[in-house]
Amino acid sequence: MSDAVDEKRRELLRTLRDRREQTPPRPREASPASSPQTQSGSDNQQGRGWMLELLQRKLTEGPAAAGRGGGGMLRRALEQNAGGAARGAPLQRLGQTVRQMQGVGTRPEGAKERAFAAPANLLEAFGPADLRTAAREAWTFCLPLFEVARLRMMAAVRAQRAGNGINSFNHTRKLVTPGTRVITAPNVDTLFSNAFIDLGSGPATIVIPRTGERYFSVQLMDMYTNTFAVLSSRTIGCDGGTFSIVGPRDPADNGAVRSPTEWIWAMVRIAVNGPEDLPELHRIQDGILLQAGSARSPGKFAQRLAPWQNYFASASALLNESPPLATDYAALRRMAPLGLGVGQSFNPGSFDSLQSAEIEAGIADARAAIATRPREAIDGWSYSDAESGNWGQNYVHRARAAVRGLAGLPRQEAMYMHAVAPNGSYHLQEDSWRLTFGPDQTPPVYAFWSLTAYEVTVQGQYFLANNPLDRYSIGDRTRGLRHNDDGSFDIWISRQDPGGEKTANWLPLPESGRYSLGLRAYLPKQELLNGDYRLPPLVPA
């Protein structure tokens, strides 16, 4: 046995001797009914004393006990622990050894021996990180702040030009088109209204009009893109109402909605069935009222692709403007080597050339992680994460969504499915597909569903592409779809018009380059939420 193993044995012997001295001795007369396996209360304390006595004896015997039963496992446990297992593991393993000595949990004949599993090192997983890791995690954690700050600055510019910027809703009066390139992965199912609200001077009030049978939602997000409330047909009904939104430190009345950050982003979606719907939607939009205090002028910040010196300087300012929640403190500690955190100011000049190289390597790691989608596909489709829209500590997925699907709703409000290429990417290149829904096998929803095609930009963002039909999605509200004789129907997805009757069910793809297919299901039913329903696979056409 090596010196390291001997030292471990001596250390355990001292520990067990101390514990035994504090434990009542085992009774000399004990019936089988009161064995250590079945005792409770004070009897069980005595049983533990007997177990410690046995352990101490086995340890004292040392390696020589290997040939008399039990010592072999003990020696293997000590050797594994000497090789770097976490503290506390030896006692757990020795407990397993004693149970085998007593005939409890004995391995069946012919069964393979299970390897000892060392517990994770919590400090290594959640404590301060090296500089490269700190840069990777800080870049990932802060990325959503940059995307939201960019949109907020656009709202501030609108305020200067038209007076409908901060603390007021900006209503989109037309459906998005290929020329609309503000928010990645836009939909053509709803009209949008947006507002950036500053709660720094006090609460805000949102008035929602009656919306009837039409799907409606007001998504309230903090600066990290976490959805902290959705005021929708599902949550408040169809008759509207008046709602108070308060900041993280303001007193709140019963029924008020509290935001984790002083700055919030409100996004309204109203379902539209076609151009003739627009006057009614405009009436609903005009009925959405926002009352808030005075707004601060938002600062200017770097873009997410800026050099790391500018990126982290802006990240420092954004973190101080919108401090993270207590549940993000572990992430902040991982960033500590960069000098980032609430109450701190980033100093890029404090890093030498070698450290700068480590920071750049960490950012490259972060970008690679965001570009990778390790999600498993089911019949060629991925499904919304459980954390979608309210990300918790899933910072990589949150950053990924900020680049490719900003402001997605939580799963209960909408589910987002994406076609997955054989290599696991959401970026497809094939020229044509067929998607067939059997009779009564379309996505189960209370509101509506639609399939949208996007071109993929060099930066990895998704936008609509021009096509001869000006059709960017197909769904349950698309007019003129042709069904097969058995009630099923096919969606033809291709770069070129499939011709004939198929044109009625054609979803055009971009003429060239990579593209992505996303299916939205608003107000999904339980069978979609719990995975009982799955989309049919795409078939090459």
Compact overview of the structure:
With 541 residues, this protein is of the alpha+beta class.
Q: What global shape is seen?
A: globular
Largest sheet: 6 strands, antiparallel
Say how many strands there are.
19
How many distinct folded domains?
4
The CATH homologous superfamily of the largest domain is named Domain of unknown function DUF1214, C-terminal domain
Question: Hey, roughly how much beta strand do the residues contain?
Answer: 15-25%
CA radius of gyration: 31 Å
In the CATH scheme, what's the topology name of the largest domain?
Jelly Rolls
CATH class of the largest domain: Mainly Beta
The stretches of 5 or more residues where confidence is low (pLDDT under 50) are: 26-48, 62-108
Mind telling me which CATH architecture of the largest domain this is?
A: Sandwich
- End-to-end distance, in Å? 67 Å
Structural class by SSE content: alpha+beta
Write the layout of secondary structure elements.
Elements: H1 3-21, H2 41-61, H3 71-82, H4 89-101, H5 122-126, H6 131-162, E1 170-171, E2 190-198, E3 204-208, E4 216-221, E5 227-232, H7 233-236, E6 241-246, E7 257-258, E8 263-271, H8 278-286, E9 289-291, H9 308-321, H10 329-334, H11 353-371, E10 381-382, H12 395-404, E11 414-419, E12 432-437, E13 449-456, E14 462-463, E15 473-475, E16 489-494, E17 506-508, E18 515-522, H13 526-529, E19 539-540
Parallel strand pairs: 6-7, 16-17
Antiparallel strand pairs: 1-2, 2-8, 3-6, 3-9, 4-5, 4-8, 10-11, 11-18, 12-16, 12-19, 13-14, 13-15, 13-18
Helix pairs in contact: 1-2, 1-3, 3-4, 6-9, 6-11, 6-12, 11-12
